[in-house]
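Can anyone check this?
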Amino acid sequence: MKVEIKIPPVGESVTEATIATILKPSGSSVAADEEIIELETDKVNQIIYAPAQGVLEIRVKVGDVVKVGQVVGSISTDKTAGAPAAEKAPPKKEEAKPPSQRKEEGGIRQKESDYLKELGKRPEERGLGVEQKPSGKPPEMPKAPEKTVPQASERAVSERGERREKMSKLRRIIAKRLMEVKSETAMLTTFNEADMSAVIEVRKREQENFQKRHGVKLGFTSFFVKACVAALQEYPDINACIEGEEIVYWDYYDIGIAVATEKGLMVPVLRNCEKSSFSQIESQLKEFAEKARAGTISAGDLKGGTFTITNGGVYGSLLSTPILNPPQSGILGMHSIQERPVAIKGKVEIRPMMYLALSYDHRIVDGKEAISFLVHVKKNLEDPTRLLLDL
């Protein structure tokens, strides 16, 4: 009996996928639920598992575009993998021949009697020529051909190379969407800076107890998520999007966290952050990090989102202009924390400072709102107790 292998649903609004990797070749034996094909979509990669045990037949190749529901192979459950081919018999050894009949590089050696007769002949009879008398002059040695030494510039050019790789579907979609953002939105960025002393002090003081109680570390991102949610509640236009001639306002706060992976940028979404505690946010972030490393982030993890936070600081970025994640109207950029001299009540002090960047869609969000939003985030970070008092 043959069991068909079909392309499963791979996420909302996704109708096709690309064959990224064939993990088990045609003709091989597979067990039920064994990984056989890796699919690549514009959202995430997904594995197809063997629906039964048997002999695999694959009808597609790497790079083929397939539709959801398409049959791409089958498994024969009434067959086993072919037995290995019979071992070939070792080649017969050549019978030993007498030395006089063995082959050599110059042909076949003569018999001994013929060889002795040949030695008795004079040189000219053997075709070797008569020895010439010395002429008194040493023989001229043939000149070796002159070697041309390539110039340094020629060597540099000859040693250079290039390689071409086809863009993955995920990378193509990211590129397309980034260009759409530049052409279809009125994106603008405003900047500010925050003194991270208070957040660092809270993490230092409470880290051990927090980790013992919740099993996860207290990071910086949860502070930023809570600070942004509080600011979004004050400035709802940044938690909205444009659809046609209407503005859609969301009354929930699903925050996307941009994550760089080997396959490209992904933005898993933290749901209902207005109802989540610091420990719940940190636990969800840890889960997303593990999924990203294992390549198991699902389309559901990436779905939706009303606002995005991206952290270039983990790679050393001091300042950048984040690009909007459509259809959202706002994205916050975090950066490196650096100790810098700042004026505090008329005195110069060294403080751990971070530049903040808010990119926003100017079609929805006015400059005053964007600046006020970023100031609100700054205040929440510099005085985290505001988050407890809903200020």
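Reply from J.R.: I decoded it. Residues 81-89, 99-109 have pLDDT under 50 and may be disordered.
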